[in-house]
């Protein structure tokens, strides 16, 4: 028997835990702790522990598929490439769009970005960061000059007070939750604000239950109390920020007094006062947030508001502090860093900047040039264009994304995707989206490739190949390079290894410039920015100055605005959505894990006990949830953990898809949809 252990990085959440894959006779058969990672210190959550189970699922895609009529038939790679090249050569650049993937490696995302802008010459490339943290990128970049988590995961342990808002950290980022618990063990206080009494709430010294969509009011109220009592960090505000007087003029309005914010949020005024005092007087405070903050029509305002609080308290640029945006997917930070966004090349170099555009055009050497120096469609805009203007986009290439379960208002998304003339999906399973494709290409998963991913804390870590890919499946970047060759651009895609792709990317990306595979082999890997080969990496950002033109953080006066859709007589409840610890995103991988799927085999809707009594709904009863966009039948979970008037659904489950119900109204700046608040009604299902 041949047994070996291969160190790799977890393919699920953005924490970036390291573990070993156990490989027996050439096949991945289990996982084992890797003790030396400073991220997870040998521990994993259930998803990471069982991340080996889907790898050899019988449902893996193993051969290219081409749709004939309504059926897929197996094809050779040459047949698939020839069809893709024939179709895409027939479209103008503006008629092609590409969706890259927060699940695949940096190398894969870089290759997709180069294929889109260099081969297809389209400006339309995006990925699902649009749906989870585009407001973080837009909001933090505007006020700090960098749109990423400011501090590191181990650093959270140094905090004297951790303030978590809009993140169920202990379920969604469990090994970051463990750091919060370690901080608490050292004496830190924990303040938690969320509409649900989640496992994270159990850790809190102060738990503030609030109506989804009142975040800016709550944060303004905390600043109101802090400034009123003179607890703000005057020195930090004077030396490191701009705009304090304008901010003060807004937050000190009576609208944001604790009594008035109690009316908006449902949080008792006394608790708001207590939280403000506890936080301001702690001495160091790490603010953690996730999609409870970002997925709103005011997502960018929410993000800027968290930054305001951290600047007012001076909790930035030092240990135990920071705006810690917890990115959801394993490589959503990396996919953004790689320029899989409609406005930037790698490292956030703007496509419309003539110097950046020339730099990439020169380096890539396409004889007929690259895309226009213009911004493309965000994925949410793209879906609307597909739905409303059939024929404007004709060719769509999707790598490792499943919009047919992850997009809001799924009836609308399905209508949009059905309008695409020719769609290619590259994935490891036949997802709900792949079922709509004309060509499906079988790709490899994390266990079958070398590569890198960048976790939420900007730490760039390696995947290491543990087994051969199943059937004819291939590395994502290799498939993209072969598509490019079929389109006539073999000379621009001559990489032989993942390391070749990484080195080309790093040579064009200042924040990754000092990284090499060799340097990343250390257990602690490297945090970007790492501009030179002797640079140690940067675990904490903004220690001396911010990345803004004058180096000052920008305080932004913000008024609270209600969600786009609020409850009324017909739809009297607020619906919010999220995840559970056992599943991840659209379940493509976790629902192919026997253990994880056994633990939580289907979805549910949480209803407050009093609300359920009034509606005559019993626990576990199958009911119908209805919004203006769709309806689903779903088991009720009657619980006191959710506040009255609010309901919650996880979005992993296709048989009771929460996104049939969610609102596709967008934040005007980041174009993120409002997944976290819409109006819903529920009704009993009458027996026939
Ligand atoms: Fe994987 Fe996230 Fe769990 Fe760590 S916390 S094992 S990265 S899913």
From TrEMBL:
Keywords from the UniProt entry: 4Fe-4S, Iron, Iron-sulfur, Metal-binding, Molybdenum, Oxidoreductase
Organism of this sequence: Methanochimaera problematica
All residue ranges annotated as the 4Fe-4S Mo/W bis-MGD-type domain in the record: 3-59
Iron-sulfur among keywords: yes
Protein name in UniProt: Formate dehydrogenase subunit alpha
Leader peptide range in chain numbering: none
Oxidoreductase in keyword set: yes
Alphabetical list of InterPro entries matching this protein: Asp_de-COase-like_dom_sf, CT_Formate-Dh_H, Formate_Dh-H_N, Formate_DH_asu, MoPterin_dinucl-bd_dom, Mopterin_OxRdtase, Mopterin_OxRdtase_4Fe-4S_dom, Mopterin_OxRdtase_prok_CS
CDD domains the UniProt entry points to: MopB_CT_Formate-Dh_H (cd02790), MopB_Formate-Dh-H (cd02753)
Any GO molecular function: metal ion binding
Gene Ontology cellular-component annotations: membrane
Domain of life: Archaea
């Amino acid at each position: 028997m041949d047994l070996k252990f291969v160190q790799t990085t977890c393919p699920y959440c953005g924490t970036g835990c390291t573990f070993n894959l156990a490989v027996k006779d050439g096949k991945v058969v289990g996982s084992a702790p890797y003790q030396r990672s400073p991220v997870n210190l040998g521990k994993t959550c259930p998803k990471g522990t069982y991340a080996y189970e889907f790898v050899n699922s019988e449902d893996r895609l193993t051969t290219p598929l081409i749709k004939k009529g309504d059926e897929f038939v197996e094809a050779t790679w040459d047949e698939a490439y020839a069809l893709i090249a024939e179709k895409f050569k027939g479209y103008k650049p503006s008629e092609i769009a590409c969706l890259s993937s927060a699940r695949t490696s940096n190398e894969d995302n870089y290759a997709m970005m180069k294929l889109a802008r260099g081969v297809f010459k389209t400006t339309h490339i995006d990925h699902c960061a649009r749906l989870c943290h585009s407001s973080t990128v837009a909001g933090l970049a505007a006020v700090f000059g960098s749109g990423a988590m400011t501090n590191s995961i181990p650093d959270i342990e140094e905090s004297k007070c951790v303030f978590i808002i809009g993140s169920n950290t202990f379920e969604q980022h469990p090994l970051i939750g463990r750091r919060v618990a370690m901080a608490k063990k050292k004496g830190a206080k924990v303040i938690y604000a969320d509409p649900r009494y989640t496992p994270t709430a159990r850790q809190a010294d102060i738990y503030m239950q609030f109506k989804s969509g009142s975040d800016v009011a709550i944060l303004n109220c905390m600043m109101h109390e802090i400034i009123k009592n003179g607890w703000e960090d005057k020195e930090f505000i004077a030396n490191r920020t701009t705009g304090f007087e304008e901010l003060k003029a807004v937050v000190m309005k009576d609208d944001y007094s604790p009594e008035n914010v109690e009316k908006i949020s449902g949080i008792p005024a006394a608790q708001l006062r207590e939280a403000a005092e506890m936080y301001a007087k702690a001495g160091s405070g790490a603010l953690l947030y996730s999609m409870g903050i970002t997925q709103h029509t005011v997502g960018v305002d929410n993000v800027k508001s968290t930054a305001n609080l951290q600047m007012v308290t001076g909790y930035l640029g030092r240990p135990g502090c920071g705006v810690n945006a917890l990115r959801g997917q394993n490589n959503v930070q990396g996919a953004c860093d790689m320029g899989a966004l409609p406005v930037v090349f790698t490292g956030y170099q703007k496509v419309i900047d003539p110097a950046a555009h020339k730099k990439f055009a020169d380096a890539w050497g396409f004889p007929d040039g690259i895309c226009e120096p213009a911004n493309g469609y965000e994925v949410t805009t793209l879906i609307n264009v597909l739905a409303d203007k059939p024929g404007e986009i004709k060719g769509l290439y999707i790598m490792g994304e499943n919009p047919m379960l992850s997009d809001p208002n799924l009836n609308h998304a399905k209508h949009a995707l059905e309008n695409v003339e020719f769609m290619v999906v590259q994935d490891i399973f036949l997802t709900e989206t792949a079922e709509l494709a004309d060509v499906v290409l079988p790709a490899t998963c994390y266990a079958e490739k070398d590569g890198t991913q960048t976790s939420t804390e900007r730490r760039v870590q390696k995947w290491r190949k543990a087994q051969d890919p199943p059937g004819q499946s291939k590395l994502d970047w290799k498939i993209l390079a072969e598509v490019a060759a079929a389109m006539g651009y073999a000379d621009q895609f001559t990489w032989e290894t993942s390391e070749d792709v990484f080195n080309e990317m790093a040579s064009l990306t200042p924040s990754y410039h000092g990284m090499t595979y060799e340097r990343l082999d250390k257990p602690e890997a490297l945090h970007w920015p790492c501009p030179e080969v002797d640079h140690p990496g940067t675990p904490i950002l903004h220690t001396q100055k911010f990345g803004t033109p004058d180096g000052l953080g920008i305080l932004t006066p913000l008024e609270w605005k209600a969600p786009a859709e609020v409850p009324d007589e017909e739809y009297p409840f607020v619906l919010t959505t999220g995840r559970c610890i056992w599943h991840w995103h659209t379940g493509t991988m976790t629902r192919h894990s026997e253990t994880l799927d056994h633990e939580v085999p289907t979805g549910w809707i949480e209803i407050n006990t009093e609300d359920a009594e009034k509606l005559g709904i019993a626990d576990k009863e199958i009911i119908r949830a209805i919004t203006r966009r769709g309806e689903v039948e779903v088991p009720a979970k009657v619980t006191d953990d959710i506040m009255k008037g609010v309901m919650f659904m996880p979005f992993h489950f296709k048989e009771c898809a929460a996104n049939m119900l969610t609102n596709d109204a967008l934040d005007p700046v980041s174009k993120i949809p409002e997944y976290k608040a819409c109006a819903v009604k529920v009704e009993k299902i009458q027996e026939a």
